[in-house]
Amino acid sequence: MQENKVVDDINNNSHERFRAARKSTWISVFVNCLLTLWQIVTGIFSGSQGLIADGIHSLSDLVADFVVLIANHKSKKDPDDDHHYGHHRYENGASLILGSILFIVGIGMLWSAANKIQHPEAIPQVHIIALWVALAALVFKELLFRYMLAVATRVKSSMLVANAWHARSDAASSLVVALGIIGNLLGFKFLDPVAALVVGLIVTKMGYSFMADSLHDLMDRAVDIETEEKIKTTLLATDGVEGIHDLKTRKMGDLVIVDVHLEIDGHLSVKEGHDIAVAARNAVLNNHHVLNVMTHVDPLNR
Questions:
Q1: Please, which residues bridge with residue 294 across strands?
Q2: Are residues 80 and 184 in the same domain?
Q3: Separation of alpha carbons 132 and 195, rounded Å
Q4: In this structure, are strands 243-252 and 255-265 parallel, antiparallel, or unpaired?
Q5: Burial code of 138-167, b = ≥16 C-beta within 10 A, e = fewer?
Q6: Which cellular components does GO assign to this protein (predicted)?
Q7: β-strand partners of 250
Q8: What does the pLDDT look like over 145-183, one tens digit per residue?
Q9: Are 290 and 256 in contact (CB under 8 A)?
Q10: What pLDDT shows up at residue 6?
Q11: First to last CA, the chain
Q12: CA angle at 181 for the pair 175 and 186, rounded to the nearest 5°
């Protein structure tokens, strides 16, 4: 009965995360649709390469949002014959795709901006409307970031955290673009493509970071030391567990799979040892963001 309750709690948390992710991502889709159209069109007519680059960055956000929606839908599928632990790693895969999108977009921005800087005579004078659009985009993106990060933190989703920081990178790029446009308006025309270059560096660095993190998670990276210590404390606090060893963890989406050897009095019956192991497993499942705990009982002979 207790194990069924644990499974039900995990399923309820999964559904809550799915609903929160879907709502926040659709809001992001709506905002990024408007910003992409607004920035690119204004950038073309005002002559601002920086604003066009920022609009392309918003477009990459839009693509990323749809990747998140698809992964969020897939990851909530129940375990089946081919996926005994469920489909949670769709989220890790989505984070890898998000990082790849950012990295490729960033490289393209760097290439375009570098070409402009090498031919300064071709840099046009920017119209002041580009500045107002860049400042408005900055405000919208910062508000979107704060909202998405709050949701991601509440439901403990690394995929949503990655998407939120993607929005924050847009806000940072909008600030850089605004400064570049101001410089252009003051007569320093080269500052607009320089702003586009900085945006490209921001996007490329963030893309590489997301790619590296998600790739490590797909390769069964262990959780951080602090989380492992908390799991150890919970296991050792279970009545009958006198020690543990060979504790191993690996990430499965935003959940954790734990393998551990429990040291239990060797004079106890098999049933008593089993009951202690079940109690330790349920304690971890109830108190940590863990998908499954595989225990092995090692008898202590005194």
A1: 259
A2: yes
A3: 16
A4: antiparallel
A5: bebbbebbebbbebbeebebbbbbbbbbbb
A6: membrane
A7: 257
A8: 888 888 888 777 766 777 677 677 777 778 888 888 888
A9: yes
A10: 47
A11: 34
A12: 130
Q: What is the largest CA-CA distance in the chain?
A: 87
Cα 22 to Cα 19: distance, rounded to the nearest angstrom: 5
**Among 193, 219, 245, where does a domain finish?**
219
Q: Can you tell me the distance from the alpha carbon of 110 to that of 102, in angstroms, rounded to the nearest whole number?
A: 12
pLDDT at residue number 15: 65
The count of residues in the chain is 302
Would strands 255-265 and 290-300 be described as parallel, antiparallel, or unpaired? parallel
Can you list the residues of the chain whose pLDDT is less than 50? Answer: 1-3, 5-10
Q: How far, in Å, are 24, 84, 152, 255, 269 from residue 252 at the CA level?
A: 22, 12, 17, 5, 34
Q: What is the pLDDT of residue 159?
A: 65
Same domain (yes/no): 148, 45: yes
Q: What is the pLDDT of residue 49?
A: 77
Q: What is the dihedral of CA 116, 37, 169, 119, to 10 degrees?
A: 0
Distance from C-alpha of 275 to C-alpha of 267, rounded to nearest angstrom: 14
pLDDT score at 7: 47
Domain around 143:
1-219
